[in-house]
Amino acid sequence: xxxxxxxxxxxxxxxxxxxSAQSRVKMLGMLADQKILxxxxxxxxxxxxxxxxxxxxxxxxIEDSDLNGIVKIMTGNTDPASIAKFRYGSGMLxxxxxxxxxxxxxxxxxxxxxxxxxxxxxxxxxxxxxxRFAGG
Length: 136
Prior knowledge:
Layout: H1 2-5, H2 17-33, E1 38-39, E2 48-54, E3 57-62, H3 64-75, H4 80-85, E4 93-98, E5 101-106, H5 108-116, H6 120-134
Antiparallel strand pairs: 1-2, 2-3, 4-5
């Protein structure tokens, strides 16, 4: 998600960081300008959505039909206030028991963006995890 908001950021593992950044801007611009639906791994669930230009970068939006379905499941309706609460995703979280311990893992890029954007769900889940594991 960070590379959407800051697409000219050069990523250490790119073979040619400058060319990769330019290619990323070109591809994201085409997706945004033509409103092309995309399926992207490691994007907020369900990973189906659109990108739109925002400032010097881009923003990912969950596909409306999926967003409406998510909102309907969670709230029982699809009024504008409910849709606004679920507009942005923040990745995934997995919790599992291993022996006598517990493991929690999060899709870090999306999770960090959820915290950065003050997503109430990401913030609350993070607080719950910290309280549970820190004895708070």
